[in-house]
Design a protein that fits this description.
Elements lengths: L2 H15 L1 H4 L4 E2 L4 E2 L3 H6 L7 H30 L3 H15 L9 H12 L1
Antiparallel strand pairs: 1-2
Length: 120
């Protein structure tokens, strides 16, 4: 099994677990207020009109990150066992969870592409 692939999956799991804390640029409201993590959303003043939306979005990110990280761990286990088809399937689920959160899924897209190349 490729050590590069194993390392890529491990890095994706770590990054996935950090989605709600490290976050990414996300804009809310007509003034395009930047709220880039769950902590930032929760720290918004209660009078900020889009606070509920921001907190809901980042809470969804937190929930998705937990589930995607679990799928990533299953993909890692399968890859270490040499079962690339199963690892591919598991990484796909992580990718599906990431896709609605970001315009371009940067965490699991790379891993999924690597798995697809190795499976071919």
């Amino acid at each position: 099994m490729s050590q590069d692939l194993i390392k890529a999956i491990e890095n994706a799991i770590k990054e996935t677990e950090e989605w709600p804390t490290k976050g990414w640029k996300q804009l809310f409201g007509i003034r395009k207020t930047e709220v880039n993590s769950l902590a930032d959303a929760e720290a918004l003043d209660r009078t900020f009109v889009y606070k509920i939306e921001a907190v809901a979005y980042w809470t969804n990110v937190k929930n998705a990150s937990e589930e995607a990280a679990e799928w990533g761990k299953k993909a890692l286990e399968a890859a270490k066992a040499g079962n690339l088809k199963d690892a591919d399937d598991k990484a796909y689920y992580a990718l599906v969870l990431e896709k609605p959160l970001r315009s371009k899924p940067v965490t699991w897209d790379k891993v999924y592409s690597m798995l697809r190349q190795n499976a071919a």
